[in-house]
Amino acid sequence: MAEDFDILVVGAGVLGLSCAYHLKVNNPTKKILVVERLADAAQGNTARSAAMVRNMFTSRDNLMLAESSINFYRNIQGSGVDLGMKQTGYLWVMSERQLSLNEPYMQKMEKNGIQIERFDLSRLKQALPALNTEFAASDEDSRLMELENVGGAIFGPKCGRLDPEKLARFFLAEFLEKGGKVVYGTEAKRIIVESSKPLGVEGEPFVWQEAKIAGVVLQGEINGEVRAETTVIASGVWNNELLEPIGIDGHVKGKKRQMFTISARNDSRLAALMHNKSFNQLDALPFVILPKSACFIKAVDEEARFWVACDDDLNQPYVNVPEPDIENYKADPRYYEENVYRILKAYLPDFEGHSRPDQMWAGLYSYNTLDSIPFVFLENGLIAAGGGSGSGIMKADAMGRIVDCAYRQGEDGEAELYGGTGYKIKRMGFKSRAVEREEWVI
Fold first, then answer.
1. Burial of 141 per CB tally in 10 Å (0-12, 13-18, 19+)
2. Is 391 a residue whose pLDDT tops 90?
3. Cβ pair 121, 272 in contact under 8 A
4. The architecture CATH gives domain 90-156+253-367
């Protein structure tokens, strides 16, 4: 007979492990089990992330979630645990039209205390001379692609990158050290729903009985029913797979994102581009977002590689219930050659000739399409968390704290985020949701 637990967490990505860690820290006597379908922790979409962190959001909710999490990660790194954090900054390169459209958002962020630097065209050209800022009228490609001349840039100095697998390993190690249990190669097949006052009659729960979540049926290293006082669903885009069959809206949709890498090892121009003294104390190129299709470049100096991608929207379908095996989602080299590369070489001509990536992979963003803010909600013995909308890793610590508070205090609780900021659980639910919609989504 399978062992029973106080808390069962489904999903060993960075969010599930953050939830497990904070639940164990604040409830040390509780028996907590994390189950993961894959063979190891953080091998799903966590491992396929662009792995960037930023505090630049228009929504105060996202700002609180991200900034408190980033500060916690910095504290952990400062204590001697390597999370791969580098404060390189984010550089949004924009046309004059885009700068004008986004100025109200910039002012709102500044009002909320976010540090922002504005680069006019002259200063930007001096700081990033490799950037092509103007397209000739005779340039047929740029005219066909409707590329706009660069007008300037917005820089976020408190942004950067980390290693999501190292972050997940930190949460995992602390959870295990405190007595938590993790089992891999085990799939959650379905959620167990039963009557809160069972009569022992076939067909329960009947509609006139109060139903509750009593655990999950597992298959793999553990087989059969595993019962728990509370079940936490933190499976990212796979939340719907478990929630919708029992009549709970999972509020997430997946969208495929593809990443490609370009080596700078044998190209002196790209090697020079990777190192830049104008934006940070690391003399590193910041994370650069180009004016077209949110095409972005991430310089990874320890690999001597650039990671490049774009966040396309229209014509990229949503996936309501993804395939179980994330490996079935493949990056398409033609997508890079015909889409990403054309934008990349237009704005950064040093990439000319690098039309084939040396590595590529794909993953699924977990979107909350309502307002692009994560959610945590409770339902009769169940806590569901997700909807990071492309920025889940940078909010994972705050989300774990909120799930823990929801477990201990219920919907009326108020979580204490890292640094002491309070956050009411009800804000993130759907019964009385009161979050501020995010307008600055990448």
1. exposed
2. no
3. no
4. 2-Layer Sandwich (3.30)
